[in-house]
Known about the structure:
The protein has three domains: 178 residues, 3-Layer(aba) Sandwich (Alpha-D-Glucose-1,6-Bisphosphate, Chain A, domain 3), CATH 3.40.120.10; 226 residues, Alpha-D-Glucose-1,6-Bisphosphate, Chain A, domain 3; 134 residues, TATA-Binding Protein (2-Layer Sandwich), CATH 3.30.310.50. Helix content is 32%, strand content 26%. The chain has 18 helices and 27 strands. The chain starts with a strand and ends with a strand. Bound molecules: alpha-D-glucose-1-phosphate-6-vanadate and cobalt (II) ion (CO).
Amino acid sequence: MNPVIKKTQAFKDQKPGTSGLRKSVKYFKADNYLQNFIQSIFNCLDELEGSTLVLGGDGRFFNREAIQIILRMAAANGVGKILLGQGGILSTPAASHVIRKYKALGGILLTASHNPGGPNGDFGVKFNISNGGPAPEKLTNAIFEESKRLSEYKITEAQVSPIDKLGSFKLAEMEIEVFDPVKDYADLMESIFDFEKIRELIASPDFTACFDAMNAVTGPYAEEILGKRLGMDKNALMNTQPLMNFGGKHPDPNLSTAKQLVDKMYSKKDAPNFGAASDGDGDRHMILGDYFFVNPSDSLAILAANAQKIPAYQNGIIGIARSMPTSQAADKVAEKLGINSFQTPTGWKFFGNLLDHGEITFCGEESFGAGADHIREKDGLWAVLFWLNLIAVKQDSVENIVRNHWAEYGRSYYSRHDYERLPVKQADEIMHHLQSSLPLLPGMQFGELRIEKADDFTYIDPIDHSISEHQGIRIIFDNGSRIIYRLSGTGTEGATLRIYLERYEADISKHDLDIQETLSDISQLSVKLAKIREYTDRERPSAIV
Ligand code: VG1
Ligand code: CO
């Protein structure tokens, strides 16, 4: 089985976005699209020969076929060993952990995360480096450059490899070890949290919980951790069977897409005390109480404020980082604790250096992502377990925990308004218009709102000093309110404009207001300043998160 060199045509559009390369399945299946991208990754890895790589995905349509292709290409490119999640299943946080634990050179993660799956859905490929985190921009840029000039790829002409049975076998010279994708991760979670306490909470007749795996990758993890190890009832674990099309649903844990869970938690009768969901690849989390939603920016702040109640963080945390559009709630906690706080561009790859150099312990994003230094990805089940551990310690409801937090730190009213599938030209026009109006904005007054600062966010990595420009337009008001604009880097159709709105309220008597009403003045202003009505035919956002 000698490697065969195949001629191929380079593509010009394999630029990784916020989190890897995402395209519709049709793209990935056609014309060596997958093969070219994989070869481009391999060509950029100096130490590939004889190395160990981790491989697995969220189980979506094309996962199994892609794995066969990647195994054959890895063997042909001289990879020493592939650690493959059984059945091709591996959540993003579990992949990050396994890369670190077994000191692999990196990992190839097959996921388009929260994007829909199925033959007409999306597919994605992401490369993570040896620290377990997403490849930094320097490497993703190199991969993109390589993909534009690629003319051949290497593959072995081998039979289909078995991927469902645990054990080791050979493909040409390469070893493939099919491992249990859940065990190492479950053990890691058990080393961080007080499982005994959580078990007691779950067994208590006064507490009911449920978890929705959304027919995505966290199903088997939830069955092992929440079910077997923590005693949650089978009926409380919803949609735990990973399906190639996620049951036709959007595996995105938010109030509109996780409808089944939301209906349950907002039902007037017998709503559980705690509800949670995760996304396609298991790195996002949504937390709900009985008739109560926890905003993800608040979730990060609350976890940070209560870190010392968790065994792994009992000695305190070093610092917190949040993506720039994430609300400033976590900054208030960092300030009070007297620890570092950082603002990074959107996407987990920017947290890697801060975590590796011990600058932060926790980090998070408004897009339902939080995580810590145990791995280098955001971690959905980690956040769910954190909340359960916290409730077990505090013996209080989700709602009270959040309200008490607001009472102490103030409330950041927060919402994201998305304009999805805009023609790329319109989205670009809006961003250019905003960029050119930046110098005029400071000092302008709109009713009670006065613009203090307006810029195009540039991030200078404090560790390697690499510079990332154009990471979002920020309009900051003198009362701390903010409007942020940026274009999504994970969509596969047209452009998505995200507008992030935030308003801080210290007064506890004003913590019970309607979110959209409270934000309506800055929301209206955000539409006006960006000239949305002039540049598009949209009357309103297509999604409000
Ligand atoms: C979105 C979120 C971002 C997140 C990224 C990947 O990116 O806004 O916060 O890191 O998805 O999440 P964008 O560029 O579309 O705004 V996941 O769960 O897809 O790995
Ligand atoms: Co995800």
